[in-house]
Amino acid sequence: MKEKLGPKLAMYPSLTVLAGSLVDKKPNFLPIAHVGIADSSTLTLSLNRIHYTNLGIKHNKTFSVNIPSEAMVQKTDYCGLVSGKRTDKSDIFKVFYGELETAPMIEECPINMECKLLLTLDMPDHELFLGKVVQTYVAKEYMTGKAVDMTKVRPLLFNLWDRGYYQMGTKIADAWSAGKELKEKKT
Amino acid sequence: MKEKLGPKLAMYPSLTVLAGSLVDKKPNFLPIAHVGIADSSTLTLSLNRIHYTNLGIKHNKTFSVNIPSEAMVQKTDYCGLVSGKRTDKSDIFKVFYGELETAPMIEECPINMECKLLLTLDMPDHELFLGKVVQTYVAKEYMTGKAVDMTKVRPLLFNLWDRGYYQMGTKIADAWSAGKELKEKKT
Fold first, then answer.
1. Which of A75, A156, B102, B169 could lock onto A16 through a cystine, CB 3.0 to 4.6 A?
2. CATH number at residue B51
3. A21-40 pLDDT, tens per residue?
4. Domain of A81, in residue numbers
5. Which of B30, B180, B41 is nearest to B116 (CA)?
6. What total of structural domains would you count in chain A?
7. B138, A41: Cβ pair inside 8 Å?
8. ipTM above 0.90, yes or no
């Protein structure tokens, strides 16, 4: 028998990103793990509507998604402890801009995506932003051949159940492959 | 200098789930890692519109999200290798139903969520389903105290860059805590 927990969202661990927007002409960053994949080049970002970052996203209709590495855990977490309303976060990271000009990106993050806001959905607690990725930036040392190497990126995975940041672990199987033996058995 | 990869969605690794729906009165399951968190109890599921599972979600306005454990990697991957259009997947798992009655859930998955369809967004390649979690089920052996213990669940994390399933790794820091020292320094 299973326990009923009530309507608990149990989608963890989830990738931790630093969402970036320009508010009052200053870059502002917030760690967010309430993210998702909406389409081939569209992602979702769910931010409680109290956040300062939202103002910049709605004003500019652009934002950035930056993937911090394990070594950046202190700075990443710090950005979630202070609000841009009272604390200037523009000097924490070296910032660069891409094609959109109003989506500040973090140089020291291995991966950056600049996004155009496609749609905002008003959820009961959060604003859900759908962003179309316009350009993706990766530092060469995090690539193996032509693909991004996540074992080099060392992303932070967020687990709300124990409020912890986790590493990505070991590869255990290939997708579209691990089930082949079973498929042969069944046919 | 960073490399420009073009508009590449780089939101990996992402949690692998088995999405469940009832199509022609038969339970059908599909592994999906294009998932997300939309609000406190609302999740997203992005499915290419060619999939059979979509028919059941749209017809019943319900679906399930089941989190497989590492030990289920073969069966999970198998469900992605065969389509419900041609292959009956109703006998792969022991299935149970909850309050919604039309959202088939997988007994052997550590965690199950039954969801009501709130909204469907037509994306260029995918259908994006927003589902409100109605009830969450967890087997007792995957809990520590009153919280789900993801180190016992051993979820499958999907990495598109190398088409691999990965384990969740080691905990490296506490959220809303790792940045406290930096906060004190700055104030």
1. A156
2. 2.30.110.10
3. 999 999 999 999 999 999 99
4. 14-186
5. B41
6. 1
7. no
8. yes
